[in-house]
């Protein structure tokens, strides 16, 4: 086991996988950086530092700096995947899905189905997402729910360095388009990462805590917030089952239902506004399939129905907090 | 350009198959048996065949909503296409795609596309792949005078120029984007090729209603791109004989316009006049092809009609390679 952070886990996985499979290519804005400047290619590996050293090692045919053209980035990835490559397309901010959505969900998501199951589109789109850095309404969104809703896409959200490696490796070895979400506040999270070949199967939630009194479902940054709430609640003798979904498509329905059947109390934490959200989706699924197990109405801890604000204190008010998770847990436990 | 007898007969046959396929669909659609949207390619055959006759199965094309011609010219199975359009289980896409989503990657046909302008970036991606493989393959985007106004097409042209990949942009200007004329919608005074030039590409222009002119211009272009000079574009001036979609009343057409273009700009008539005039083939040679093609399409329609419907139990199959 090596200790590294999520950023380092992503970088080392990209190096290892591109070394292993010459069909893997990377394209995006400033994945090299400095092309066409007096300073020359700087190879900083993008503004998030997630691709250093790749351009030097694998060359400009496989590591491609693109103009600011998100539709062309995703569309080129889709075409390259049809043509036999395994492209990794980077969206510097997940919000830019709005610019390139056609190529994601009218094109790559649907090729296999529309073409009668005879094609595959093994593209990985890396999307940097999430609030917490005062990047405001157009650079902070967690747009995983809309992509989870689209058949044909897989959606993964690593929260640990081990999962960052395992899920990215799985994405690069699979044959379906994968939306790989990287939370911008989690890049520095450190942890142990298994050496060598390490894959994390999709659709297998991570059991973060086993407490038995209440089921809390979270993904992304909301997992660590829920852990903080769990610590507070534990002091009062309240035990939390905490599941990190890891992937929202496929969704580990069994793990969710199994826990809810034992605790009878559900809280879903979601870093998005509430309407048509992942939280709403999971509450509906549980209501439909485990109604008789429920001892209290499921609670959703979400952001308000508003865009994401800029000011630090406003943004903190927008993002679900550990305190809100704690309050929701106490609410479902108090219900009689 | 010199063509031998087989090449000429083959080119004529492929154009005739497209024409007959589309003319027959035009009739079949009237019966109500074929569902959904169908956009016919009749009138533009010289473009698809003049270009695809010079490609190998390794070369990759992306097509448009008006894609039957590109599919046939690139080598998709005609019977499979007909079954697909009839929504049958034996269709090329098992009845999942229909007219707008026909694809066959085995012959380098990466897909028709229901989104105008959706394909151009994908052709650049195919060209990125082609350059890595180093076998001289090219990625081709067919686009119309509608798609030439989409931002995706602009982005794709710029990305191709910046990355210097072997991408080819074929602009088929049939003068109508849906119901709107190019005189209105194409801001560069109806000139699409100049846009490619504006992005820094070499561009060709040719009469898309003439197989030989299309072929000759594209041959130059293809040699240029295969030689590693980066992307290039060609604009073909062509005509569509039917509406934007089947059922389009075409009130936007001028009086007698369709009769005139069918009389004066028909690529099959022009081909026949040239090869018979030059004593390369005889009318009898071509009449024989016509009869064979009519029988071929008749058979395709009969087999499509007789084929099974897709099993509703399979409705959610083939979404993923695997999903667990």
From TrEMBL, chain A:
One of its GO terms (molecular function) is oxidoreductase activity. Gene3D superfamilies: 3.40.50.920, 3.40.50.970. Residues 4-189 form the Transketolase-like pyrimidine-binding domain. It comes from Novosphingobium barchaimii LL02. CDD domains: TPP_PYR_E1-PDHc-beta_like (cd07036). SMART domains: Transket_pyr. This is Pyruvate dehydrogenase subunit beta. Keywords: Oxidoreductase, Pyruvate.
TrEMBL record, chain B:
It holds the Pfam family E1_dh. One of its GO terms (molecular function) is pyruvate dehydrogenase (acetyl-transferring) activity. It catalyses: N(6)-[(R)-lipoyl]-L-lysyl-[protein] + pyruvate + H(+) = N(6)-[(R)-S(8)-acetyldihydrolipoyl]-L-lysyl-[protein] + CO2. Keywords: Oxidoreductase, Thiamine pyrophosphate. Its cofactor is thiamine diphosphate. SUPFAM superfamilies: Thiamin diphosphate-binding fold (THDP-binding). It comes from the Bacteria. Signal peptide: none annotated. Gene3D superfamilies: 3.40.50.970. Residues 13-312 form the Dehydrogenase E1 component domain. One of its GO terms (biological process) is pyruvate decarboxylation to acetyl-CoA. The pyruvate dehydrogenase complex catalyzes the overall conversion of pyruvate to acetyl-CoA and CO(2). It contains multiple copies of three enzymatic components: pyruvate dehydrogenase (E1), dihydrolipoamide acetyltransferase (E2) and lipoamide dehydrogenase (E3). PANTHER family: PYRUVATE DEHYDROGENASE E1 COMPONENT SUBUNIT ALPHA, PYRUVATE DEHYDROGENASE E1 COMPONENT, ALPHA SUBUNIT BACTERIAL AND ORGANELLAR. This is Acetoin:2,6-dichlorophenolindophenol oxidoreductase subunit alpha. It comes from Novosphingobium barchaimii LL02.
């Amino acid at each position: 086991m090596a200790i590294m952070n999520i950023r380092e886990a992503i970088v080392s996985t990209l190096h290892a996988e591109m070394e292993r499979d010459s069909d893997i290519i990377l394209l995006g804005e400033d994945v090299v950086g400095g092309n066409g400047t007096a300073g020359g290619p700087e190879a900083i590996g993008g503004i998030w530092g997630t691709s250093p050293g790749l351009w030097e090692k694998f060359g400009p045919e496989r590591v491609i700096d693109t103009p600011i053209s998100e539709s062309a980035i995703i569309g080129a990835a889709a075409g390259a995947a049809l043509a036999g490559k395994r492209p990794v397309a980077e969206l510097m901010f997940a919000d830019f899905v709005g610019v390139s959505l056609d190529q994601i969900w009218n094109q790559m998501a649907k090729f296999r189905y529309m073409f009668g199951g005879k094609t595959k589109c093994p593209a990985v789109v890396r999307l940097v997402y999430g609030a917490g850095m005062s990047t405001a309404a157009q650079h902070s969104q967690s747009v995983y729910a809309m992509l989870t809703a689209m058949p044909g896409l897989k959606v993964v959200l690593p929260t640990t360095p081990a999962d960052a490696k395992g899920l990215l490796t799985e994405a690069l070895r699979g044959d379906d388009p994968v939306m790989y979400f990287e939370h911008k506040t989690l890049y520095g999270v450190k942890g142990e990462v298994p050496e060598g070949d390490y894959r994390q199967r999709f659709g297998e939630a991570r059991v973060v805590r086993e407490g038995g009194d209440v089921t809390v479902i979270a993904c992304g940054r909301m997992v660590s917030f829920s852990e903080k709430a769990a610590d507070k609640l534990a002091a009062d003798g309240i035990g939390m089952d905490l599941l990190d979904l890891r992937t929202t498509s496929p969704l580990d329905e069994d793990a969710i239902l199994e826990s809810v059947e034992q605790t009878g109390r559900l809280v879903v934490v979601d870093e998005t506004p509430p309407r048509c959200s992942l939280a709403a989706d999971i509450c509906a699924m549980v209501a439909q399939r485990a109604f008789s197990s429920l001892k209290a109405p499921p609670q959703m801890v979400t952001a308000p129905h508003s865009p994401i604000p800029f000011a630090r204190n406003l943004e903190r008010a927008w993002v679900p907090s550990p305190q809100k998770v704690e309050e929701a847990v106490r609410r479902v436990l108090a219900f009689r | 350009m010199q063509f031998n007898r087989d090449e000429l007969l083959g080119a004529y046959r492929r154009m005739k198959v497209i024409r007959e396929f589309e003319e027959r669909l035009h009739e079949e659609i009237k019966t109500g048996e074929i569902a959904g949207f169908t956009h016919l390619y009749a009138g533009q055959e010289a473009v698809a065949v003049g270009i695809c006759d010079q490609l190998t199965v390794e070369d990759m094309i992306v097509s448009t909503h008006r894609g039957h011609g590109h599919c046939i010219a690139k080598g998709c199975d005609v019977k499979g296409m007909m079954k697909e359009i009839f929504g049958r289980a034996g269709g090329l896409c098992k009845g999942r795609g229909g007219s707008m989503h026909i694809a066959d990657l085995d012959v380098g046909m990466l897909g028709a596309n229901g989104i105008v302008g959706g394909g151009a970036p994908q052709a650049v991606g195919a060209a990125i792949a082609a350059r890595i493989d180093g076998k001289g393959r090219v990625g081709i985007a067919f686009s119309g005078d509608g798609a030439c106004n989409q931002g995706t097409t602009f982005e794709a042209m710029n990305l191709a120029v910046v990355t210097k990949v072997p991408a080819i942009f074929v602009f088929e200007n049939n003068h109508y984007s849906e119901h709107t004329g190019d005189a209105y919608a194409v801001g560069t005074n109806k000139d699409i090729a100049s846009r490619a030039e504006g992005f820094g590409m070499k561009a060709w222009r040719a009469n898309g209603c003439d197989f030989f002119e299309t072929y000759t211009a594209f041959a130059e272009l293809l040699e240029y791109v295969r030689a590693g000079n980066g992307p290039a574009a060609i604009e073909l001036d062509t005509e569509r004989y039917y509406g934007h979609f089947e059922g389009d009343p075409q009130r936007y057409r001028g009086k007698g316009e369709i009769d005139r273009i069918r009389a004066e700009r028909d690529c099959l008539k022009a081909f026949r006049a040239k090869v018979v005039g030059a004593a390369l083939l005889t009318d009898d040679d071509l009449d024989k092809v016509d009869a064979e093609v009519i029988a071929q399409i008749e058979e395709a329609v009969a087999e499509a009609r007789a084929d099974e419907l897709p099993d509703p139990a399979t409705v959610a199959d083939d979404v993923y390679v695997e999903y667990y």
